[in-house]
Structures are given as C-alpha cells and as structure tokens.
UniProtKB/TrEMBL annotation:
Keywords: ATP-binding, Kinase, Nucleotide-binding, Transferase. InterPro entries: Mak_N_cap. One of its GO terms (molecular function) is kinase activity. This is Maltokinase N-terminal cap domain-containing protein. The keyword Nucleotide-binding applies. Residues 20-103 form the Maltokinase N-terminal cap domain. Pfam families: Mak_N_cap. It comes from Micromonospora purpureochromogenes.
Length: 210
C-alpha cells in the first residue's frame, strides 16, 4: 500500500522532468515543452522509507516515455549521476528525486513485480484521519510470475542508461523500456501495461534470473 499526502511540491515532478528529460540520450521528444502525465503506477518499499513511482509522460506530440522515480528524504550515497533534482514537499520537507534505475529499492521492487507477480501498490490518500483509495490510472501484469523464491536483488552492479535501460545485479538482470511506441520485445519474464487509450498490453520491463 502506498500512503499519499495531499501536498504541494515546488518544483513539481513534471517540472523537474521537463528540465531533465531532454538531457537523456534515450529521450526522443521536443525540448523546452512542458511534460504531461499520461499514466503511472507505484511499487511498495517494504521498509516504508522510499517512494517508488513510475510515470508515463509525453512532451507535446512526442512519444510516451516511461520514467521510474524514487523519492527519498536524504541523498542516496553514490547516486549523484541518477539525481533528477530536489523538491520541497509541503508535508515531508525536502525530497531527493532519483531516476529509479540507479536505486536499489526500485531494482528489488521491479524484480518482485515481474518474477512474483506482486503487482502495483494500492494508493491511498490520508483524509481527515482516514484513508481514501485512489483509482489506478493503468494496469500492469507479468508474464513470468512463478513459484520460485525471489532472490535477494541487492545493489546494482552495473546500470546501462540506454533504451532499454539495463540494471545488472548479482542475481537478476532487469531491462526497463523507456520509449513505449517502438514495440520493444525484451527477453525474459516481461512486465506489461495498459492504460486509457492503449488497451493492448505494451512491454514495460523484463527480468532474467542469473
């Protein structure tokens, strides 16, 4: 379960991405154009410390890109190259926003979603001391969920920032598709997604046990 706050962010996530995306080698869209959210999904951090959210975004009439993000209350050691920016959260204070492909919490969550079918986290807002569920904006599914025990993923040993972005750990190799209109068919067990206007499942990511 992801517990969300009705809060303001300055700058917003989309404002951060509007500045950050044009500098990515895999980005194929206009620069200087406001990024808009198409859909998204979240994973749980078992420790409850890190926000893990994947955004599907578009700039102008460009293609839809997949951008997984992690939100932290302090800098992640050794992850400066993956920092998207910082933002002021009206409830939680300063937050460090990372391209999640460089974050070990995301690697573990993605591996679980693909290899065990754990799915996306249900999202709830805190409202007047209670909780209000937020309807998902997309559905995800895994082709490779099995009964085998999920290996401990650990810290990524290597990350190749391309399309797809490759995340290599001691026990699993993950591939994250960035541009979703190319019909990419990654190897291994595959995570797929559908959203409004896109009823046919598209590959989002894949996993191969090592």
């Amino acid at each position: 379960m992801a517990l969300l706050h009705r809060a303001t962010l300055r700058p917003t996530k989309l404002e951060l991405l509007t500045e950050w995306l044009p500098g990515r080698g895999w980005y194929d869209g206009p620069a200087g154009v406001e990024v808009v959210r198409v859909a998204g999904y979240r994973f749980d951090d078992p420790a409850g410390e890190v926000g893990v959210e994947t955004l599907l975004v578009r700039a102008g009439d460009g293609p839809v890109h997949q951008v997984p993000l992690t939100y932290r209350g302090a800098p992640l050691d050794g992850a400066d190259d993956w920092l998207v920016g910082t933002t002021a959260h009206s409830v939680l204070g300063r937050r460090w926003v990372y391209d999640a492909c460089g974050d070990p919490v995301y690697a573990a969550a993605l591996a679980a979603a693909i290899l065990t079918g754990s799915g996306q986290a249900e999202e709830f807002f805190e409202v007047d001391g209670g909780q209000e569920r937020r309807a998902p904006t997309m559905a995800i599914d895994s082709s490779g969920a099995d009964a085998a025990e999920l290996p401990e993923v650990g810290t990524p040993r290597r990350v190749v920032d391309a399309d797809p972005t490759l995340i290599v750990t001691d026990t699993v190799e993950l591939a994250v598709v960035r541009r979703l209109d190319r019909g990419t068919s990654p190897a291994g067990a595959v995570l797929t997604g559908t959203w409004e206007g896109r009823p046919t499942p598209l590959p989002l990511a894949s996993a191969i046990r090592r």
